[in-house]
């Protein structure tokens, strides 16, 4: 299962949300992004408990209408930089919430 989004749009979203993630934290969950897909919009949320940021962009999926996952922030940023494709599929392996 995958959603499709332009690499530039996804990278712009990550660049805006990533600075909110603390470099060192005793709470591991703060190094993650919350990624939500609903109504053809992909939203990334990051927080350090004092500040929060939500960024969104259009995306598409032929399978799912809505889902929410928690994903490691630093790994997304490094993986995207290494990719040469202009159209980046985002693959989701497990769900915290999902609906069809």
Topology:
Elements: E1 2-6, H1 7-17, E2 32-38, E3 41-47, E4 52-58, E5 66-72, H2 73-82, E6 87-91, E7 97-99
Antiparallel strand pairs: 1-6, 2-3, 2-5, 3-4, 5-7
Helix pairs in contact: 1-2
What are its keywords?
single chain, 100 residues, five-stranded antiparallel β-sheet, DNA Polymerase III, Chain A, domain 2, alpha+beta
Describe the structure.
The strands form 2 sheets. The chain has a 5-stranded antiparallel beta sheet with strand order 4-3-2-5-7. Strands 1-6 form a two-stranded antiparallel sheet. It has one domain (2-22, 30-99): DNA Polymerase III, Chain A, domain 2 (Roll). The chain is globular and about 40 Å long. The chain has helices spanning 7-17, 73-82; strands at residues 2-6, 32-38, 41-47, 52-58, 66-72, 87-91, 97-99. By secondary structure, it is α+β, with helices and mostly antiparallel strands. Helix 1 (7-17) runs antiparallel to helix 2. Helices cover 21% and strands 41% of the residues. It contains 2 helices and 7 strands.
Shape: globular
Biggest sheet: strands side by side, in what order?
4-3-2-5-7
Indicate how many domains the architecture comprises: 1
What is the subunit organization of this protein?
single chain
Order of helices and strands: EHEEEEHEE
- Second CATH tier, the architecture: Roll
Identify the CATH class. Alpha Beta
Given as residue ranges, the uncertain stretches (5+ residues, pLDDT < 50) are: 92-100
Share of residues in helices: 10-25%
Main sheet specs: 5 strands, antiparallel
Distance between the amino and carboxyl termini? 12 Å
Average residue-wise pLDDT: 76
Rg from alpha-carbon coordinates = 13 Å
Strands, total number? 7
